[in-house]
Give the backbone structure.
Amino acid sequence: MEEKGRRNDMSAPDRKKLLLVDGHGLVFRAFYAVRELNAPDGTPTNAIVGFFNMLQKIREDWNPDLCGVVFDAPGPTFRHEAYAEYKAGRKPTPPEFKTQLPIILELLDAMGVPVVSREGVEADDVLASSACAAAAQNLETLILSSDKDILQVLDRDVVVLRPVTGISSFRTMDGKGFEEEYGFSPAAMPDYLALLGDSVDNVPGVPGVGEKTAKKLLSDYGTLEGVYECLDELKGALRKKMEEHREQAFRSRELTRLLCDTEEDLSVFEPRPVDAKRFLEKCRVLGLKSLAAKFQFAETAEEAPEHKKDIRLREVSAEEITASESVLLLPVIEGKYPLHLSASELLVLDEKGAYRRLPGAEAASLLGRLGELSKGAVLFPDFKEAAACFGSSALSPERVRDFKTAHYLLHPDKNAHLPDTLIPGYESSSLAERGAAIAAEYGRMERELAKYPGLSDLMRTVDIPLIPVLVDMEQYGISCCSQKFGALEKDLSERLSGIEEEIASTAGERINLNSPKQVAWLLFEKLALSA
């Protein structure tokens, strides 16, 4: 691919930015980088989670004006027509990957992110042509891809962001960085791959030419043509290889050279309408609440989360709120569990939307009044943290309802169980709105738990009553009887001595029983026991 001319400084604030994403490449990377994850119905979700975590991180960091995810279209391309063995021998796509791809496309559509694919060419051709067209229109382009082929489009206007470790670490490469690493121009990347070959795409290359040799040849001679023009300068074995595979080398370059159509229509990458409700509902069905929480959509009356549609909040006096039958307590707790915790503020919310915000210093007296005036349920977002903050005996466990425990019982395979990671828009909501959201979501979980009486009984009779016990153990430790432990130690020592004497008597000599080598000698050589 030819180098494009130098343009205005890419840091100019009035330049538009285009983000292009290699869809299949990044989804495959996520599929193998993220451990096995499944939706409640068993649908695999590891590639979905990994892909959207990468996409959202880059979108937040770079804030592009235009954005698109480019996928390979089904069917052969012009490269298959030129070389029938192109990409032959690839392993079948795992079914767990195939299952997730339509879901990713659906979520991208709901997000308003354009998805592009084109028959007869590869995604890399669309990425390269779009980058060429963007450069011609003075746009700044960032391509998110781990494919080496795409590096041939690098120049002043185009940079490539390459995943380095899994899906959490990225490296930005521009034209200058490429030349420092490879020793030749990005435009010669097809020549490099033509010499080296590509086992993944079944591009033959020149047998016996490795990375070091290919880099030196292009560093010295610039292009494949330059290498063959100076073939006489090469040493015997290398010269012979190059001579024998001249036709194959040039055919390989045709397979690795990407299209560059500067007339590519970039309007396809304009942002599209967002369907936040559909996106969040799909995430809910898949059990991807932590993923949903990463995406902040501008809410309309139709798109607002259910808990915000039904909010009828009203602030009342402390006396009125403590007389409520059932309440939610949402403390703002500071410090590190399990010690030195303190509440700076406390929200009390009843089932009718009445609420009161109190200073943290009044929490203890409030809990006391709740115990005296009401026998109803008290819902916490995290009862364990609250018990560590206010005291394990502050409230009878029979009255406690715990968001975190309920979510864990329903989703034991998940890592996140707290409202701030599970409820969309939580962080941007007021304290009262957060309380209403927790209550609404807990109500839904309670209805779900009712379908499994065993789980409800487990939570009520085992999990929640154990929480104050665990808090006390983690804060104060447990008491031990040193006399009984001493007696146990003496008894075990005497029994061990007896066993050692018996072994010495059988063996006819003493050995170090902590040495696997000596024990093996005793068992298999001296005593001739079978393995």
